[in-house]
Design goal:
This protein is α+β, with helices and mostly antiparallel strands and about 600 residues long. It folds into four domains: about 1-215, Carboxypeptidase-like, regulatory domain (Immunoglobulin-like), CATH 2.60.40.1120; about 220-290, Immunoglobulin-like, CATH 2.60.40; about 295-390, Immunoglobulin-like (Sandwich); about 400-575, 60s Ribosomal Protein L30, Chain: A (2-Layer Sandwich). About 15% of the residues lie in helices and about 45% in strands. It has nine helices and 41 strands. Strand 15 (about 150-160) and strand 16 form a beta hairpin. It is rod-shaped. The protein starts with 10 loop residues before the first helix and ends in a 16-residue tail after the last helix. About 35% of the residues are buried.
Length: about 600
């Protein structure tokens, strides 16, 4: 704007001259013309990023493509591509729309002296930082031409037709007027200007015939995160906005619009900085998002110890345990030795030791659960399972037949007749059978009662049944289930003969006593007063080994029926305490 038109002679001739001078004319190339009309009339024209001048005008340009920008502070700028044909005139009409609220002080005023057509840029080198041209800010007498800024330091660039007229920093304080003399390399003068301290809010752009006021608005920036505390892999929404900025950027995202939002998924603690730049300066706002990079992992056993027992080639005891695991804040897991990558789960494990040889088992089995995430976090948990037990050789059963005194147990005393030494034999058999039962689940004992040849068949049948019954009851009292014992009564059938009795007596572990050898018939009768035991399903039978070394051997051997009281006493005594009895005369 030519502000001194009423005092400067030749103003109109100068204006006509400026309108006629072609801009960017290149006589060596084919050219065309751009005839541009702008509204408001003070709007400034940039061609290909270079400052031309303000107002409607005709510009001579090289034929081809060009970028034309029209700017006026307080208005929304417009930039567009045009084609200029050789020898042709391209018409362009640009109407800008006003924008922005009132700008409040306090203010400082910047005044320029020099090239009136030069564009003034604050805090940037591109046309977007344009605030006006020198002729709008070079007069402050009667008519006021003011570039109003808030207190601060501004990087000023004055440019015209692709050339920098001057650039440098200006520090403005409220209530000051700073004059920059462009003809003397930007020399500045500062004087007091109290009106800037109390000036009311100003519109973004106001121009009269010889006056202009351009208050530059300060830049504002806002940034917020939907959540500032995340687990790894979670996203949060960043929302930002700014006012009066022409360049906005967000760290990690680069250039962004002046307002908007974006989901971000940081992998570590991240501080996002929103920077807004414009003619009014620079504003920043930051927000820090904390990322928990450590996965949470749990690994537990349902029980710390399990048992394993193997007898021969059969596993008779094999406990189980459950391994449970879970993870959070992770995207990858590994469970060893399962080779599983499930985030959570359980697995049943059995007692299965590495040891294969016989002997006690005492082993530890370790399980490892590792959880990781994309943020580089890792957590490892371990659990140790204790496996105990043993591996035993196949069981061996040494079964011995049980021998009874003559006529015992009687009909009236069916629970009397097992002497102490024979009970010890049954104790040993009960222990062996229990062990064998661990190895063979279908194990059974068959007890077959016998009687010597004396007496009727009916009597001996009943007697042999009582003998088998008494053994069964005793074994049951030692913990063998009754349904695992079968009894049979053979009576006086299937007698072993006398010769066999002599052979069995001679084959014992010790030398037979003289009295047993001397009276072979009584010995033969004694061998048939017994009960045999058979181990099923092996079919192994008890050895008919007469207890000749037992203290109560002679009571069992004698032919006559011993007194009841004496048998009862001998039944309750330990085997080592049973007194020797003298052999009586033969009898049933």
């Amino acid at each position: 704007m030519q502000t001194k038109s009423f005092v400067l002679a030749g103003l109109f001739s100068a204006i006509c001259y400026l309108c006629a001078v072609p801009a960017f004319a290149q006589s060596s190339q084919e050219t065309g013309k751009l005839k541009i009309h702008v509204d408001p009339k003070q709007a400034y024209v940039f061609v290909d990023g270079k400052a031309n001048r303000e107002g409607s005008q005709t510009i001579e340009l090289a034929a081809g493509e060009h970028k034309v920008g029209v700017y006026n502070y307080g208005y929304i700028p417009k930039e567009q591509d045009i084609h200029v044909g050789a020898g042709e005139t391209t018409d362009l009409r640009v109407n800008l729309q006003s924008s922005g609220d009132m700008v409040a002080g306090p203010f400082a005023d910047i005044e320029f002296k020099g090239d009136p057509r030069a564009a003034v840029l604050l805090n940037g080198q591109t046309p977007a930082y344009f605030v006006g041209h020198v002729d709008e800010f070079d007069w402050n007498w009667i008519w006021h031409q003011r570039l109003l800024v808030r207190p601060g330091t501004y990087q000023v660039t004055v440019t015209h037709e692709g050339n920098t007229v001057w650039d440098g920093p200006i520090t403005a304080k409220a209530g000051q007027q700073i004059t920059v003399d462009l003809n003397h390399h930007g020399a500045t003068k500062v004087k007091e200007w109290k009106a800037g301290l109390t000036m009311p809010p100003q519109p973004r752009f106001h121009a009269g015939i010889a006056s202009a006021t351009v208050p530059v608005a300060p830049i504002t920036a806002e940034l917020a995160a939907q959540s500032t505390s995340l687990n790894c892999g979670q996203a949060t929404d960043l929302a930002w906005k700014s006012a009066d900025a022409v360049d906005t950027s967000l760290s990690g995202l680069g250039q962004v619009p002046d307002h908007g939002s974006r989901d971000v998924t940081p992998t570590h603690d991240m501080t996002y900085v929103f920077t807004a730049k414009g003619p009014g300066g620079e504003a920043t706002q930051s927000v820090t998002v904390h990322v928990d990079t450590v996965p949470t992992a749990t690994l537990a056993l349902s029980q710390p110890e399990i048992r394993y027992h193997k007898i021969g080639d059969k596993v008779v005891e094999q406990d189980t345990a459950t391994v449970n695991w879970s993870a959070s804040n992770a995207n990858s897991t590994r469970v060893e030795p399962f080779d599983s990558n499930a985030m959570s789960g359980s697995r049943t494990v059995i007692a299965e030791p590495k040891q294969t040889s016989t002997g006690p088992i005492n082993e530890n089995r370790t399980y490892t659960f590792t959880a990781t995430n994309a943020c580089g976090g890792q957590t490892t948990k371990t659990a140790t399972l204790h496996v105990v037990g043993s591996i035993d050789p196949p069981p061996s059963a040494t079964l011995l037949s049980v021998f009874y005194p003559t006529a015992y147990p009687t009909k009236h005393h069916p629970t009397v007749g097992l002497l102490a030494d024979e009970k010890m034999t049954l104790d040993n058999i009960a222990t062996q059978f229990k062990n064998f039962g661990l190895y063979e689940h279908n194990a059974r004992l068959v007890v077959v009662g016998y009687a010597d040849v004396r007496g009727s068949r009916k009597y001996n049948k009943a007697l042999s049944e009582r003998r088998a019954d008494l053994i069964r009851d005793y074994l049951v009292s030692k913990g063998i289930p009754a349904d695992e014992i079968t009894i049979r009564a053979a009576g006086k059938d299937k007698q072993i003969d006398q010769k066999m009795a002599e052979t069995l007596l001679a084959n014992g572990n010790s030398k037979p006593t003289q009295w047993m050898v001397k009276d072979k018939k009584i010995t033969w009768l004694a061998f048939n007063r017994r009960a045999d035991l058979v181990l099923e399903p092996t079919g192994k039978q008890s050895a008919m080994m007469y207890p000749k070394d037992a203290p109560d051997a002679r009571i069992v051997w004698q032919r006559r029926e011993p007194p009841l009281k004496k048998v009862e006493i001998l039944s309750r005594m330990p085997a080592t305490s049973v007194p020797q009895a003298s052999a009586g005369n033969a009898g049933n």
